Amino acid sequence: MILVDQEQRIFTLQTSNTTYQMKADTFNVLLHAYYGPRVEADMTYLIRRADRSHTPNPDEAGTNRSYSLDTMPQEYSTCGVGDYRIPSIEMEQADGSHAMDLRYTGYEVRKGKYTLEGLPTFFGQEAETLVISLEDPASHVAVELYYGVFEEEDLITRAAKIVNRSGEPVKLLKAVSACLDFPYAAPMDWITFNGRHMMERCPSRAALNPGVQSVASTRGLSSHQNNPSVVICRPDAAEDHGLCYGAVLLYSGNFEIAAERAQVEDCRLVLGIHPHHFCWNLAPGESFQTPEAAFVCSPNGFGQMSCQFHRAIRKHLLRDPYENRRRPVLVNNWEATMWDFNADKLVEIAEAAAPLGVEMLVMDDGWFGDRDDDYRALGDWTVDQRKLPGGLEALVPRIQALGMKFGIWIEPEMINEDSDLYRQHPDWALAIPGRAMTRGRSQLVLDFSRRDVRDYIYNTLKAVISSADIAYIKWDANRTLATVWSAQLPASRQGELYHRYVLGVYEMLDWFRRDFPEILIEGCCGGGGRFDAGMLYYTPQIWLSDNTDAVDRLRIQYGSSFFYPVCTMGAHVSAVPNGGTRRTTPLETRGVVAMSGTFGYEMDLSETTAEEQEIMRRQTAFFKEHYDLIQRGDYYRLTDPFADGPFTAWEQVSQDRREVLASVVTGTTRANPAFQMLYLRGLDPDLRYRDQEGNVYTGAALMAGGYPLSLDLFLGDYQSRQIYLKAE
Ligand code: GLA
After folding, report:
1. Which of 524, 574, 598 to mutate to test the pocket of ligand 1 (most atoms within 8 A of CB)?
2. What's CA 273's distance to the chain center, in Å?
3. Less crowded by CB within 10 Å, the N or C end of the chain?
4. DSSP letter string over 592-619?
5. Spacing, Cα 309 to ligand 1 middle (Å)
6. What is the pLDDT of residues 589-615, one digit of tens each?
7. 532 in active site
8. What is the pLDDT of residues 364-395, one digit of tens each?
9. 266 is annotated as an active-site residue
10. What does 30-45 look like in DSSP terms, one character per residue?
11. What's the CA dihedral at 49, 144, 293, 304 to 10 degrees?
12. Catalytic pick among 136, 153, 496, 532
């Protein structure tokens, strides 16, 4: 609900459990008053003032030295006019100055959720929109602040639009999506999600100390190294208690999330496009739209915050038809064959997979041009007739005859120098004339800011995809951007290229959705290098990581689950010893872990034993039977796999709380193991739950006393168990 007190100029955003409030003051400065647990009150008493000295005062304040932009909580912080904390916006005005003041000029409330042209957003008719208009009185450059309110999910979205009404050209050097001030001195932690290829989104928690701390990507992609998501919380906050705020940026390119603990211990958080090599030219009348940021505040710890994000993403970010439709259990040939396959080999894998309950074969990298390794052929999107005689027209019916669907891997944004496309169009790759080239996986990046490049790539891919009945696309991107320069942009516009690249990727993804609405697209970026809320708008699932080791995956899935729901996490069972870690884990355990994702296999199923096949048959049957609970249940992290305890556990609870699936994976074994209890969460205390062995416990008992884990689970390394409980 959006409440506007027109007289006091107080704007209140109410969700089921939270309240967000701001006020336009007498000088028309838009001040942030409150964001936290729901209250029905005027919270503007929290906007306090004091003369802190060495904090300048705006002209209107006259001799009142306690009024300073530098110490008061701002909704969208300005630049060069006296607030020295992190600016939300920075411009080069027509006169060369960098000053940007912002004053309130009006507001508008709209039914339904705003959309942003060319950019991903949460959507929903049941949501409401507030637009607040601000303007720089000197230059007349305006900023429109967008707020989306999703009551049930406690989700508040934000974005900003910068409109050049100055009558002269200006340059935008920075414009964040959202700024959130915490105007008090409470100690705060922040949790960021960091890592590297094969070890993405590991949570890292630290106190917000004086000065600026940030996580960012300047790689052109949201990156393996830092995820565009962050939690800010009280030091006592944990899974089931304490005040916390989750924030995500719906953006897949360069980003920066920065937090500043300022002089009087207040905190500021900003999220937006990274200012590195960003310079957007705004001619008179033109505007720039920032990506969207989204927040959930939870008064009750990280568990509730995650549940609300999961619900919001499932319901308001994943688009038709895949927000609710069952996704197929798949087998992908990558780890089985890499580039060394042909049609018969794929059919052999599919023949082994079909009786196990696998529903789709995905043909990975290696089907096009002369792609026998990763040194050649990216850009040449024609079927390799040596490997696939007769093309997809011949192959796909053979897979379908087994009762399976067919999916295909593509990497549209990339090009190898050893390709026909590069030989014809060397200027289509990002490179700086006169400067040596930077390669990644021996490949270059296509200039996706160019319409002609996008059109060509799209049309060649469309021809392949239209040539057969394709149910799924895996969209990969296997390097980061460097030597960023476009042959089609003048020098003065090269600073627009990083963002134009992202817009180009989004646009082509939308072309696929428009022309092939039934195709499920899975995102991928060397595993999880572009696993962000922006991509999820286009690709409802994303390959979580190239690391398929079950034990490492526990950690990656744990970190990812703070924001992203199970149904978005691409996860497969692969062969052992694992290619990335050389670790051997039981097949049952690999299944339990992959099942808390989209689920599938990534191994040569034609080389498995009868005993293994029996286990897999049970796995796919169990997954399908409990699909709704696994994919749409409320998700609880029961232990922290980074803490190296005796086991890792998590849980899914159905919306009506009558069904529960708890998954447990143990670590390395020790003789004579202790009794371990599993403390369940989110149950109905009064219901009686029956497990697979027929034991019955009340919800209250399972939450307070715990579920007794059997001793044999702790004998042998990396054992696992799925405990399914149903209310009587
Ligand atoms: C990336 C992906 C893998 C696989 C290979 C193919 O690394 O993450 O899953 O598709 O590319 O080259």
Report:
1. 524
2. 15
3. C
4. HHHTTTT-EEES-GGG--HHHHHHHHHH
5. 28
6. 999 999 999 999 999 999 999 999 999
7. yes
8. 999 999 999 999 999 999 999 999 999 999 99
9. no
10. EEEEEEEE---S--GG
11. 60
12. 532
